[in-house]
Amino acid sequence: MKSNYKKRPAGSKGTKEPKVIGEVLIKCFQSDEPFARAYRKHKAETERNDDQLFVDIFPNTELGIDLKLQTRQPGRMPVGEYMNGVLTRDGEYLFRFVENAKKRVPVRRNPRIYSGRYINVIRRADGSLVLTFNRPTLNENFTFQDFCREAAGELLAVAGLIGERG
Questions:
Q1: Residues 6+ apart with CB under 8 A from 131
Q2: What is the distance of C-alpha 32 from the center of its chain?
Q3: What distance in Å separates the CA atoms of residue 35 and residue 113, rounded to the nearest whole number?
Q4: Model pTM?
Q5: CB–CB of 166/127 below 8 Å?
Q6: Range of the domain at 139
Q7: What is the number of structural domains in the chain?
């Protein structure tokens, strides 16, 4: 009995033959999966052309590996969830992913303790206060003298709020 598998294109319906990689990628990126949505968003933000599909992405498939996940929550990772962490290669066929111990929250070095329309007050690490002026838009209706008067009024109000110690 002679097979007719060569007469049909690769990946045609009703067969379990491999599909052409281009068809797989197009179907993947048109789906509603989280990776596809993120890729479309990235593509829209960077305004890339279709002919530059994988310019800065280097796919690498590791076959037959052991992947160990060390996560902060027990059980399997939910589908579509992203985790911050580090992926390391421990051996020829062994990879380990360690989730970050805690989510990184940016620490403001010099917090702004007062944000006004004309001035800002910032506290340095040593506890001293720094005063900065905002840049106004000057025109015929709002001159430099107007800015100085308004900033002076705001300075007096802030001095009463913060007090002598700061």
A1: 119, 120, 121, 122, 155
A2: 19
A3: 40
A4: 0.36
A5: yes
A6: 112-162
A7: 3
Please provide the average confidence, as pLDDT, over all residues in the chain.
Answer: 78
How many Å apart are CA 75 and CA 85, to the nearest integer? 17
Q: With respect to residue 2, please indicate whether it lies within any of the assigned structural domains.
A: no
pLDDT score for 119:
92
Last residue of a domain, one of 41, 59, 77: 59
Query: Would residue 82 count as lying in a domain?
Result: yes
Q: Which amino acid, 139?
A: N
Whether 151 maps to a domain, the answer reads yes
Predicted pLDDT at 110: 81
Q: Is 76 within a domain?
A: yes
Q: With pLDDT > 70 as the criterion, what percentage of the chain qualifies?
A: 76
